[in-house]
Design a protein that fits this description.
The complex is a heterodimer of chains A (110) and B (112).
Chain A: E1 4-7, E2 10-13, E3 19-25, E4 31-37, E5 43-51, E6 54-57, E7 64-66, E8 76-78, E9 87-94, E10 99-101, E11 105-109
Parallel strand pairs in A: 2-11
Antiparallel strand pairs in A: 1-3, 3-8, 4-5, 4-9, 5-6, 7-8, 9-10, 9-11
Chain B: E1 4-7, E2 10-14, E3 19-25, E4 32-37, E5 44-49, E6 55-58, E7 61-65, E8 71-76, E9 85-92, E10 100-102, E11 106-111
Parallel strand pairs in B: 2-11
Antiparallel strand pairs in B: 1-3, 3-8, 4-5, 4-9, 6-7, 7-8, 9-10, 9-11
The chains are: A mainly beta (110), B mainly beta (112).
């Protein structure tokens, strides 16, 4: 099992560009989430999904879209990147208890 | 909404000293989870506590869940350099396991 995989590992964007952060899990987990982590801070929930076809907003959803067409994949789309979206993004999946995190994507928006 | 507060934000210890981080919630939690994030890494699950007053041990780590299920602590005995990292507590926003509120974490540094 690869667990939770994320691509890319690093990305630099210019303000206004769009991109998709990929996340995939091979544990057949129903729950998947996207978090962002800023320096010295905890993890803030962006969007989450309780199963294929179902998504909902977290604490900081503005500027991000998600979809869940399959159990395995949960991509995060930045519609028009802004410098405030410079952060490390973590995807996580879970069954009933612990969350398994991917290695993260470090995004810089210039 | 539900808030989870952690103290201290930073802790610097000499190797061999003990370390404790505290987590407090504004509401009663059905459970609490603890995660460790090494520098440059991703959060890794350590443990989940469910019962009021529960105490669990993992080698030198002791986890407690308060009687009112609104606070928790993680205590490390005789810290080692391998303990460095940021320790997060997390409480569920509701019964949904995939939707958690994380504290801001306590970053531990250990001086050899």
């Amino acid at each position: 099992n690869a667990g939770v995989t994320q691509t890319p590992k690093f990305q630099v964007l210019k303000t206004g560009q769009s991109m998709t952060l990929q996340c995939a899990q091979d544990m057949n987990h129903e729950y998947m989430s996207w978090y962002r982590q800023d320096p010295g801070m905890g993890l803030r929930l962006i969007h989450y999904s309780v199963g294929a076809g179902i998504t909902d907003q977290g604490e900081v959803p503005n500027g991000y879209n998600v979809s869940r067409s399959t159990t395995e994949d949960f991509p995060l789309r930045l519609l028009s990147a802004a410098p405030s979206q410079t952060s490390v993004y973590f995807c996580a999946s879970s069954s009933a208890n612990e969350q398994f995190f991917g290695p993260g994507t470090r995004l810089t928006v210039l | 909404g539900q808030q989870v507060m952690q103290i201290p934000q930073y802790q610097h210890v000499q190797e061999g000293e003990d370390f404790t981080t505290y987590c407090n919630s504004s509401t009663t939690l059905s459970n609490i989870q603890w995660y460790k994030q090494r520098p440059g890494g991703h959060p890794v699950f350590l443990i989940q506590l469910v019962k009021s007053g529960e105490v669990k041990k993992q080698k030198r780590l002791t986890f407690q869940f308060g009687e009112a299920k609104k606070n928790s602590s993680l205590h490390i005995t005789a810290t080692q350099t391998t303990d460095v990292g940021t320790y997060f507590c997390a409480g569920p926003r509701n019964t949904n396991a995939g939707k958690s509120t994380f504290g801001d974490g306590t970053t531990l540094t250990v001086k050899p």
